[in-house]
Amino acid sequence: METLTLLGHGIATAATDPGMLLAIFVGALVGLLIGALPGLGPTAGVAIMLPVAVGFEPTVALAMLAGVYYGAMFGGAVTSILLGIPGDAPSVMTVMDGYPLAKMGQAGRALGLATYASFIGGLIGLIGLTLMANVVSRYALMFGPTEMTALMVLSLSLVAVLGTDDHLKSFLALGIGLWLGMIGLDQIMGGPRFTFGSMALLEGIEFSLIAVGMFGLGQMFMALEEETPDKVDAATYSYRSMLPRLADLVATKTTLVVGSLIGFLVGVLPGAGATASTMMAYGAAKKMSKEPETFGKGALDGVAAPEAANNSASYGAMVTLFTLGIPGSATTAVLLAGLLMVGLQPGPRLFQEQGEFVWTLFGTFYIGNLALVFITILLTPILAAAIFVSRGLLFSIVMGIVIYGIYSIDLSLEALLIMAVFGVLGYVMAKLKYPAVPLIMGVVLGPLLELGVRRTLIASRGDLSVFYSHPISLTIFIATALVILMPWINRLYQRTMKPSQA
Amino acid sequence: MSTIISHSFSLHGVRTLALTAGLLAAGAAHAFAPERDVTVVVTSSAGGGSDTITRILTDTISKMDLTESNFVVENRTGGSGAVGYSYAAKRAEDPYLWANIGVSFFTTPLLGESPVTYKDFKPLAAVSEDPYIMVVAKDSPIKSLQDIKAAGRMISGTTGIVADPALLAQRLETAMGIEADVVPFGGDGEVVAALLGGHIEVQFGNPSEVLPLIQSGDVRPIAVSSEERLPAFPDVPTIKESGYDVVLTQLRGFVMPANAPDDAVAYWADIIKKALESENWKTQYLDRFKVVPKYMAGAEFAAEMDKRNADYTALMTTLGLIK
To answer: Rounded distance, CA A134 to CA A268, Å?
Structure first.
């Protein structure tokens, strides 16, 4: 009860301060726009706003930075749905069903659902953060290298569930992704791997180059040979098709709740992050669905699950930041820097010593989430109208923005070359019907898996038994085995059951 | 120098002369006048000791309006510093690029794991010298170094395979005759998480990183790596007085690319000096993290870098890390 009183007071303080409301609004809007740009995600957004925000008083500064964070999580879905280009790693899974929906002319509907899902995910994550932070942070610490290894194996095994009829091709794509993720300096020993003497490859291949190349350029190359009409005829669509539908929210309610819970619980774990949680939420949604065959072809649940998960995860990642001073993700690491810059030391004593600050800040999160729903819903019809733009025009504009954006990160022409190479790879893989999502998951999660395995084995001196003697890791490995074996078990079950039914 | 000159003149009331002299002196000593924002490369993740000192220092400079430039801190992590330092070295003549230096600045190149060495940089300024505090989780059975000796084995975390915590563990391994396993993590924050979760037993933490957790009682200090006990923890013994001759402190400072113009280096070093003397630095850094101030620049800092490099070379040779 005391927590609720404190929170209520925090929300009231935040809601009655016009300066604070402005900070939330500006932060959320900036985040939304940055998140919507291909290649720029929440980490970049918060880092860009950091020098601006620290000029204000601590609560306002952090409210603005956090606004950028969850705003960007909302915005990440926009390009995933409209263009099929994930803006950041956590919105890769949203492409799976969001983009097919947009291609069917239901971009507004998909965007609307993504907004609702983001809101519900955000709300559940927030409730978890405000009410259970201390309990949950202890649980998060139980995840050491061994448990992280198990979790990454589970996430990657879900490639088997993702759809695509050919499992072999999915896992091959995953393997290529794992290899790509190893390029650059060895994270443990520091030596260069697979860089072929190139300085450009020394720092590894940026996620954004692969995402923009494979999904963006690859898609555009494919579109060149498709014989679909140049643009969607506006007359065939009613204005209603551009609007979000509340009914979709009801239809996907179970997925939303499950996705949010998975997002929060995985997001809490240091280093696991939002991307792994979207993968699991998507897998879970498909397993629970009555029509799993629609996944990957425009299933509403396929949009709802990852979007709920990644927003929920963004609050999960804040749990250890506020309770222990340990950032759970790259973005919360930048938030931590923000806290330090305004003179606050996050850690176990932050709640006691700076209670007023913490609760007001949490109050701004609630307000910011609500504000984002309205902003996004208002923008949805305008964004959705993008499908009526001639593809010749749309692709040229997007290509321009993408090339400019990628070049501006490091002022490096090599980056553009790498992007182009991935564009060709994306095209070739699409032609041969290799899915792109497993590859990109391998790139993002592979390095985490490698770190987990190597750290575990250093601590255990090469003893593999730790993987099954730790209860949490054992449980996760059993779940993984079930995920992989399920299709065979199902088939066996049906084969043995059929005769008796007949 | 220029500021001192102009001050002494204005005290005598000869304003015009002072202004002229000041301008001339400024013209001679610091032809450099910043026109752009400064990028400061930090090679460990945000929230760690290197990151904290960098952000508080740049923040102090901004608050004091010592320069027109703003500071952008970039965390370029990975490869035990190789990623960040090779990025910084590539900006060969850039007068707007600083890099924070830690141990990996010396050790990673020594292992032959980095394309750049400390010779690819020009010393800017040293700003502090931090001890390491050896901590265990609050419910750990380890109460002192003797308990570790009795167990004969220790699992510690480090921020990189050749970072100070790893070298400390290896020196203790030799000095105490135990077996030390060192697990590399991405930064101090991750090491703390692993310690609190019971995945490692011991951490050699920077004061700035472990102090809040010591105060809250989540971790317990058992020894410090400095020559003498720390004023903030008079009850915590040094490793040396526990009977093992191991002393290691971390030199914190900043460098610039090798060909950065000398006037720019002097200009920035002067600004750092002023910031270190400020009240803000005292309250925001020295008092908060209980460390002793230290300023070095120019030839003195260059000599210290040579000495450190020789120390690490000797140390790592002894440990069999390099031949």
So the answer is: 11
Q: For the domain B133-224, what is the CATH code?
A: 3.40.190.10
Residues B323, B314: Cα–Cα separation, whole Å: 10
* Residues in contact with A82: Cβ distance below 8 Å, sequence separation at least 6, in sequence order: A102, A107, A111, A383, A384, A386, A387
Q: What are phi and psi of A192, to 5 degrees?
A: -75, 140
For the domain made up of B31-130+250-318, give the CATH fold: D-Maltodextrin-Binding Protein; domain 2 (3.40.190)
* CB proximity list for A331: less than 8 A, separation 6 or greater: A41, A42, A43, A46, A69, A314, A317
Q: Structure pTM?
A: 0.78
CA nearest to B32, candidates B276, B301, B268: B268
Is there a contact between A186 and B75 if contact means CB atoms under 8 Å apart? no
- Alpha-carbon distances, residue B230 vs A114, A433, B137, B163 (angstroms): 54, 64, 20, 22
Q: What are phi and psi of A247, to 5 degrees?
A: -60, -30
Measure B238 CA to nearest chain A CA, in Å. 26
Report the C-alpha gap between B239 and B245 in whole angstroms. 7
Q: Do A325 and B87 touch (CB under 8 A)?
A: no
Can you read off the two tokens belonging to residue B239?
A: 């490793």
Centre a 10 Å sphere on the Cβ of residue A401 and count the other Cβ atoms it contains.
Answer: 16
**Tokens read off for A420:** 């182009």
Of all residues in chain B, the one with the smallest CA distance to A202 is B83
Q: Which of A265-269, A487-491, B2-6 comes out lowest in average pLDDT?
A: B2-6
Residue spans per domain, chain B: 31-130+250-318, 133-224
Tokens of A425: 């790879």
Question: Which among A54, A188, A347 is the nearest to B184, CB-wise?
Answer: A188
Closest CA to A366 of A130, A53, A188, A193: A130
Residue closest to B227 by CA, chosen among B242, B239, B209: B239
Dist. CA A369–CA A63, nearest whole Å: 12
Q: Return the residue of B nearest to A457 by Cα.
A: B183
How near does any CA of chain B get to the CA of A275, in Å? 19
Look at residue B20 and tell me whether its pLDDT is greater than 60: no
End-to-end CA distance of chain A: 59
Chain A partners within 8 Å of B161 (Cβ):
188-190
Identify whether the C-beta of residue A252 lies closer than 8 Å to the C-beta of residue A301.
Answer: yes
Nearest to A144 among B72, B162, B197 (CB): B197
Predicted pLDDT at B219: 94
Tell whether the model's pLDDT for residue A156 goes beyond 50.
yes
**Nearest residue on chain A to B193, judged by CA atoms?**
A141
Q: Using CB atoms, pick whichever of B155, B190, B288 lies closest to residue A459.
A: B155
CA dihedral A5, A6, A8, A14 (to 10 degrees): 160
Lowest-pLDDT range of A29-38, A283-292, A424-433, B237-246: A29-38
Q: Which residue has the tokens 């170094």?
A: B145
DSSP classification of residue B237 = P
Intra-chain end-to-end CA distance of chain B, in Å: 45
